Amino acid sequence: MVGRSDSVTEAPAGKTVLASSVAKIYTGEIKKGIEALGRKPKLVGFLANTDPAARMYADWTGKTCQETGFDFELREVDKEELEDAIFQANEDDAVDGIMIYFPVFGNRQDQYLQQVVSKDKDVEGLSHIYIQNLYHNTRYLDSEQTKKSILPCTPLALVKILEYLGVYNMLLPYGNRLYGKTVTIVNRSEIVGRPLAALLANDGAVVYSFDIDGVQMFNRGDGIKLRRHRVADVEIKLEEAARLSDVIITGVPSESYKFPTESIKDGAVCVNFSTAKNFDPSVKTKAALYVPSIGKVTITMLMRNLLRLIDNKAKTVASA
Amino acid sequence: MVGRSDSVTEAPAGKTVLASSVAKIYTGEIKKGIEALGRKPKLVGFLANTDPAARMYADWTGKTCQETGFDFELREVDKEELEDAIFQANEDDAVDGIMIYFPVFGNRQDQYLQQVVSKDKDVEGLSHIYIQNLYHNTRYLDSEQTKKSILPCTPLALVKILEYLGVYNMLLPYGNRLYGKTVTIVNRSEIVGRPLAALLANDGAVVYSFDIDGVQMFNRGDGIKLRRHRVADVEIKLEEAARLSDVIITGVPSESYKFPTESIKDGAVCVNFSTAKNFDPSVKTKAALYVPSIGKVTITMLMRNLLRLIDNKAKTVASA
């Protein structure tokens, strides 16, 4: 019973999964969508800052869009002229989708600008109606359920990654596929962390959401009886939540921040959406699956949202 | 934020999954296997008792075998003549597979009889070499890894059910696909419970195995570093293990036994392999997926094992 039975393997059991593996699944679907459409959809990106990271993201979006078959135009404008430029693009029938490279002013005015983008062209899915639908677990724009609501692209990318990783159980009914899963999210921004917590809880998970203001638990109650999530302030340490969690998602914009590896549950799924590496390489001694960055999936979701916006518009015209 | 947001759904979120849904996946594969073989494989079942349950199981195996394309023959013999009858079937080239409907003597002599069946015809996968391979996480019979070892059919059926239910993560390397999963098994028989615990632990799970003698934990150590499982006696209450478990498997042969529903983790997977119903109908208020019985999958695995035995034999002849 001893001998080779106790032999120890050398490499950690954890496996790295690259965003590109997930993205390519959707690229095929998107290309087919463009083919069916019979024309190149046009996406306009607005750059009104000199942030090199924003510029890089813009270049990257442009490259990916063109490779996939979209017409991408980067419009560089002065920040004081951005609102007018957005109005113009909203009115222009040749423009299918619009996105803004933030930060512009770097304060609440940016949230105002985001709402200036017509909801019919908002590829990032940040218009108030979309976010409100997300929080209320309302998945369609119309009562006939023909037009799906748009999801914010980074939370959506994380959902698609969790689907790919087998965290969503496809045998469960749509809307309940995270039932039984516990998730820790380190980030509660209005753009990603908070909508993500709501989205995953609406799909059935118990979510611990951490930020500097404290911890909140998002869930649908015992036996996921509630139709949508509820939120409660809770007292739980990060290490304790981590030990309970099947999934850990980080988005801390700091190079010095590292998630404590020792508190990760053996065999967990770890995903980082920050541009900084929030997990130490030792993560693979604990995690079964580790996704170091998600950017490529996010861009794919921008393109997917653009096709959905065009589809929703066609349905609106058809039913008018 | 209140109002419809707090509306409560009526039915429990849990979903029942029938063994027939899992079995039919393998029936197709098995039929193709028979087609490729070009002849009807012959399975002989020995019945040497008057137990109505054994008779029913025999009739059911026969019916399923015939529907799927096997030649099934039930041989009813006196228990004192069974050993000779098995010897004869072992030697008969027209017989591909052999199984015995237990109990025969109802004591250790039954284990002796089981070992009388030639390992080359043992569709139940209970020959010592197969069980030893299972415990040692040795998956092939030969060093060239061309002939897969046979797994005992009930534990194998449970593995296939857990694969179907999405508990095995297909993104992880073969052999590690239960990494991160905690399982409670109530039954530690030599035929099902103990080999099952070893099998699931060898695939990466942490398993709590309960029987009247106490609790054992089967696992491959921190970060599944060990090549095969180890076993430790542990002190943990059933309720506590259940609360930690993603999967609960019961096999208590008693109509009065019921697993305590209130200790099942929200969203767990619950599978019963006893002929008695070990879960109360309330299980669906806690479990996400519930499999009430597994018999149909077990029979399918008998047939699958038979094809594998024929395949292994062909490979032995080819390499001789």
From TrEMBL, chains A, B:
Residue span(s) of domain Tetrahydrofolate dehydrogenase/cyclohydrolase catalytic: 20-124
Entry superkingdom: Eukaryota
Keyword line: One-carbon metabolism
Gene3D superfamilies xref list: Leucine Dehydrogenase, chain A, domain 1 (3.40.50.10860), NAD(P)-binding Rossmann-like Domain (3.40.50.720)
Q: InterPro entries, alphabetically?
A: Aminoacid_DH-like_N_sf, m-THF_DH_NAD-bd, NAD(P)-bd_dom_sf, THF_DH/CycHdrlase, THF_DH/CycHdrlase_cat_dom, THF_DH/CycHdrlase_NAD-bd_dom
Q: Which residues form the Tetrahydrofolate dehydrogenase/cyclohydrolase NAD(P)-binding domain?
A: 166-212
Q: Does the keyword Methyltransferase apply?
A: no
- PANTHER family recorded for this chain? C-1-TETRAHYDROFOLATE SYNTHASE, CYTOPLASMIC-RELATED, METHYLENETETRAHYDROFOLATE DEHYDROGENASE [NAD(+)]
Q: What is this protein called?
A: Tetrahydrofolate dehydrogenase/cyclohydrolase
